[in-house]
Design a protein that fits this description.
By secondary structure, the protein is α/β, with parallel strands linked by helices. It has nine helices and eleven strands. It has two domains: about 180 residues, 3-Layer(aba) Sandwich (Rossmann fold); about 90 residues, Pantoate-beta-alanine ligase, C-terminal domain (Pantoate--beta-alanine Ligase, Chain: A,domain 2), CATH 3.30.1300.10. The strands form three sheets. Strands 3-6-5-4-7-8 form a six-stranded parallel sheet, sandwiched between helices. Strands 9-10-11 form a three-stranded antiparallel sheet, covered by helices on one side. A two-stranded antiparallel sheet has the order 1-2. α5 crosses α6 and α8 packs antiparallel against α9.
Length: about 290
């Protein structure tokens, strides 16, 4: 439990002083949170940056009690993916969350997976990232459902950098009749345009210099969306990427609700990309309205 006191308004209009509390297991969560309402959850895997903290700010817009979770979920990592090397910075993460105004942080142990019921993600999980990571989104919806069952939030906030994940979570929990309101929060970028990601820390200095080209090409597609066909835009960007030895896993212009290929005259499209720089897989997107 962190020692810094924060001011919070009670339902009776009195001023209370509470501490950000660390919750380590399911029983503790249910006991501690039972008397709190209007709770907003920010699920994370830790190694927090300004993008994560923007989710906390979004949660504070809708909820009175802010909960973050930190758990590196093995269910969403495939064989030979970066589970073991995924950055773990718990002490710094807790300090950042306290400063950002969180009330509770749920840091479960591996016991959270004991006897966990596994779920299948909706069919849109088979597109984009799902083609190369076929079990990834099943792991995501399984652990998010578990977090929802344990923490019972009124709201949950997810970053739109993983736009496909956001759509999948919204669809999954609507199909399963959860009443939790799922909110998306905009991508936060570095000064050079690179979308903030915990995986950016794993880039070599050389690859970090190249990485901003991803956003440059997405921006170029957006700026020329009315001047060229979608196929021309994609082919031209792939050719530009080759100059920097970047080979996209996918680069697509899509309907932002179905993730099907967008029509040439669609007013709203999602430009989505995944690339691998060295051993680091990065995703990004731009939503055009």
């Amino acid at each position: 439990m962190l020692k810094v006191l924060k001011q919070k308004n009670s339902h009776q209009g009195l001023i209370l002083f509470i501490k950000m509390e660390i919750i380590n297991n399911e029983n503790q969560a249910k006991e501690v949170l039972k008397d709190f309402s209007d709770t907003a959850l920010v699920p994370t895997m830790g190694n927090l940056h300004s993008g994560h903290l923007s989710l906390v700010d979004k949660a504070k817009e809708v909820g009175k009690t802010i909960i973050a979770s930190i758990y590196v979920n093995p269910l969403q990592f495939g064989i030979n993916e970066d589970f073991d090397s995924y950055p773990r910075t718990l002490h710094d993460d807790l300090s950042k969350l306290e400063q950002a105004g969180c009330d509770f942080v749920f840091c479960p142990s591996e016991n959270i997976l004991q006897n966990i019921q596994k779920y299948k993600a909706p069919d849109i999980s088979k597109k984009l990232c799902g083609k190369s990571r076929p079990t990834h989104f099943d792991g995501v919806v399984t652990i998010v459902r578990k977090l929802f069952e344990v923490l019972n939030p009124n709201y949950a906030v997810f970053g739109l950098k993983d736009y496909q994940q956001f759509l999948i979570i919204k669809k999954f929990f609507k199909e399963h009749n959860f009443q939790i309101k799922i909110l998306g929060s905009p991508i936060i970028r570095e000064e050079d345009g690179l979308a903030m990601s915990s995986r950016n820390n794993l880039l070599t200095p050389e690859d970090r210099k190249i990485a901003p080209r991803i956003y440059e090409q997405l921006t170029s597609i957006r700026n020329n969306i009315n001047n060229k066909t979608h196929n021309e835009l994609i082919v031209n960007s792939i050719e530009a990427f080759k100059e920097d030895d970047i080979f996209p896993e996918y680069l697509s212009i899509l309907n932002p609700e179905t993730l099907e290929d967008a029509g040439e005259n669609d007013e709203s499209v999602l430009i989505a990309i995944a690339v691998k720089l060295g051993n680091v897989r990065l995703i990004d997107n731009i939503l055009v309205n």
